[in-house]
Amino acid sequence: MSARQVDYDRIAPTYDRRYRDDGMRGTAAALLALVAELGAQHVLEVGCGTGRWLADLRSVSDYLYGLDLSVGMLMQARGRDARLHLVRGRAGQLPFPAGAFGLVYCVNALHHLQRRFVFEARRLLRPGGALAVVGMDPHGRREHYYVYRYFDGTYETDLARFPSWSTVQDWMRAASFERIECRVVDRILDHKVGAQALDDPFLHKDATSQLALLSDAAYRAGLDQIRMAIAAAEAAGEQLVFPVDIPIAMLVGWVD
Question: pLDDT of 47-76, one tens digit each?
């Protein structure tokens, strides 16, 4: 399963439905606060996708840049706000001059960008700037996300592709970030009870990379496991809870 890749061009038109029930307002608020704290005029989001997070920063900066490899995602971002400066490119070779930005950040994308991105971001930051990495760390939290239990291989794949926060901090130190801070800024807490799980928007195959990476057969097998578990609980007169408790952290590296 790890050799498969998500086709972001294909899923771009429906990508933002993941925010239907949970807009992750804590993440947006943390980014807004960080821009204000830095006084950053020029801001770059790497792995910007549909431009959802850049749109939240429009009120605090007129110089918003987004980079993504997916043409489909960039088209969605362009449709959201024609004033965004959008570039197609790779995180390991960012096409911007040194010291161009006061803030470089990514949201739920570091598993695509990896170590080289941290060094590239450091190159782009001017004195007093910062790199912010926002996302989840699945290491040690299998029981808090029901997808890991019912869809075989999803947890193991996430362990392989998501660096732990301690690993990211090591990357930042190696890239010469002077100060590093990590704090929880959001929390996806949305337990489903019984058949409610089958209506979870995050259970659509294209809603999350964990499911999008599955083969169609593996995805159907996971759904069948959920249905059988619900039926067994109902037959026993019990309520089955499908847990969703995912803390979202922001790791910030500062350039003094």
Answer: 999 999 999 999 999 899 999 999 999 999
